[in-house]
Amino acid sequence: METQPSGSEMSESNNCNISIMKNLSQLFLLSLIIILMISWTPSGQKDPLTLYGQIDRSTGPNTLVAKEKKAGWDLLFDGKTTNGWHGYNLKGFPDCWVIENGVFTTTTKGGAESQDIITNKKYRNFALSVDFKLMKGTNSGIIFQIAEDAKYKFPYETGPEFQLIDQANWPDPLKDWQICGANYAMYPPKSLPSKPVGEWNHLMLVVDGNHVTQIINGVVVVQYEKYTDEWKKLRNSGKWATFPDYGKFDEGFISLQNHGTQVWFRNIKLKEIN
Fold it and tell me: What pTM, to 2 d.p., does this model score?
């Protein structure tokens, strides 16, 4: 004779079904979270240190090897001509910059701000790779997101600067946001991996949307997000408070700065990223 389940048995069965449903729901939510995390993870092609690793350091200067070309890198300086560059707010190339032994270098002396050179092309999202060398007391930098207009005298009035300086021999006291590797007057470097004066260093600047990464000799020295509350506070409270167009542009030219001291640049390579 078939018997009906007791009330206690039915209660246990219902509890079991509820428990199974809860576990399935939790498993579904966990799977969904994992899928979303994977979909939001930046691709390796845009990871700054992955981009840094794409540069071949074993070949001669001002050349691209096959793997660099395949990865999408372009050479911005051939070591022989000024093709692709001009003086800021000039039609031609300034005589205070010369090419010596495959290197861009300055001839200006005295430490005062002088004539910068900039790329002929504007860039928005990119990775820039450059070898640089400082002399005793050098002050220079890489400036980006620059607007070129006669109403501006210098590129730094609009563009952020990857600071390059021999702070140990600079004659004046410097704040932490002025030393080598800083995002000038904004973010101090996290570390100081630069080699001694007279030795070649390697930097990479990665601009990926609003995210900016600065690397020296394989070490990330600055990372920041443009337009955050922190960025706005720094931009509006310090040196740039009197420069209304600083940081205003997301696309612009790239500059090699001439601050009246000698500096050397070579192996200037750029990869545009999506």
Answer: 0.84
